[in-house]
Design the sequence.
DNA sequence: TTTT
DNA sequence: TTTT
């Protein structure tokens, strides 16, 4: 069945990069996508859409995007559920990105929250590319994400 | 910003049609969209995606689709939140359909749950069309939906 | 950069299956997609959109779809040019399908132009699946497509 | 039937704005959309996709976008044909934009080809908005587009 | 819990 | 709470 989503918006926060027990990278981020029309009160609203991306593009996202970055997402709608710590079933709808597009150069006026000295003119970099840009070597270390507890499982892998 | 979703799937139940206090029609339904790949256990899963549609297409949806109907949706991702009866903030992600496509004739083998005697070959009817098909006249009666409590407000209208 | 197309329509003819010199399958077909609105004269028109699909899905398309079949396409817009036999540069815009969705059972009332005796209830078969359905074994024979001259090159492969 | 396209790319030239005999604005432009993968020779190619947009968004496009501007398009695939001056039938496939997204501030480094002194931070302006930005008043003058011959007809209007 |  |  067809299931396709395309979004362009700005990250509400820096992306979160984590690793499954098997060392597969996953990044989560939220896109604020402004609506093209105003509501009854006359102001523009936005949708805050949760996105997930796996593997190499996850690492590219974590390396290139920060709070405020303009990004495009091409993916699909996914629903899943889990039982929270109160024993309640929680239903989640999120976008699984097949690819993420970086629509601004790194460190443009919109994402000065990272302080890398190495600016780069992007103009359409695709997160699906392989790259030798990551300096942290965290690729080989599932716990490199500063020891944050990992609650995602390899079963969540989209394929 | 861009926000576009296209889905093709089957209704998990008959759609629910309601009216705002101002008499604007809204229909809700869930599409089961089968994934194109299998999970680690080797079985095909589906995403169960909540959809909303407003005004005339809402009534067309309620008249044409039933549990099991194959339908296409062209719309956008919307997020909103409300406080539930336990005083907790609930976050909702759903698809607001601009148009809904009926991909099967009415009363095909997949939607025999309605028992109208009036079969019709569809093959691509678009819910955006006006139509004189509704017999209930509920268009003029916001309470025609058998007295079900209406908890949606006109503020939820997408435009 | 983002480039995404989703279509649902009916094949205007049986698909054409061919093979590159290296034996890679390609299928071409045209989808008639009815417009959701009428023109000034009050009649509904359609767009006739040329589609290409490669590899295994190409063979599935050739096996499952015939003139009149309802199908969904998820792909991208591609432009290319070639010099025709009059030495003129011709520009082509077409859709390269990543996946093709079969939205009707084989041999439904809309695609009786093939005369296979083996009907099958489909209801959402995805062309990306591998399958053991092809009986012709043409997979190993680049000229199996009844000796038709092959004018596509392996350079046209999308990846 | 479903027909949806989403593109993000850069204009290959300044857009062309024209008016039908009835004074309806139309803008044409071509988007260069880089492919996310390299070809056999290892270089990245692009698709050059012709787009049309009507009415108010046409004027916004003409006012905001220039050669090199990064833009997003949400629209549909359209095919049409006409007889050229050699009496030959020409088939055209193009994207009819429902909305065009401006993904860069006006006069950013990528579209310095216009020399307006009035820079403006955009960050996601939607061409569908009404605006009081046009100074030329060409809205009321179908020949304001410097006398260029108009070969489009009101019959080409999408609705 | 939200971006420009 | 899920469809074929």
Sequence:
């Amino acid at each position: 069945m067809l299931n396709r989503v395309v979004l362009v918006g700005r990250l509400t926060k820096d992306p979160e990069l984590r690793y499954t027990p098997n060392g597969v990278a996953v990044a989560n981020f939220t896109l604020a996508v402004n609506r093209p029309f105003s509501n009854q009160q006359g102001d523009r609203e936005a949708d805050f859409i949760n996105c997930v991306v796996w593997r190499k593009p996850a690492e590219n996202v974590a390396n290139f995007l920060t709070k405020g970055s303009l990004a495009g997402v091409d993916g699909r709608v996914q629903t899943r559920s889990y039982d929270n710590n109160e024993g309640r079933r929680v239903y989640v709808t999120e976008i699984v990105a097949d690819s993420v597009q970086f629509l601004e150069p790194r460190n443009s006026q919109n994402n000065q929250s990272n302080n890398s000295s190495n600016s780069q003119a992007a103009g359409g970099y695709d997160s699906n590319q392989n790259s030798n840009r990551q300096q942290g070597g965290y690729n080989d270390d599932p716990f490199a994400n500063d020891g944050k507890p990992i609650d995602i499982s390899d079963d969540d892998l989209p394929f």
About this structure: Residues 111-124, 129-150 of chain C have pLDDT under 50 and may be disordered. The beta strands of chain C are 3-11, 16-19, 25-38, 44-54, 70-83, 89-102, 125-126. Residues 58 and 81 of chain C are 22 Å apart (CA to CA).
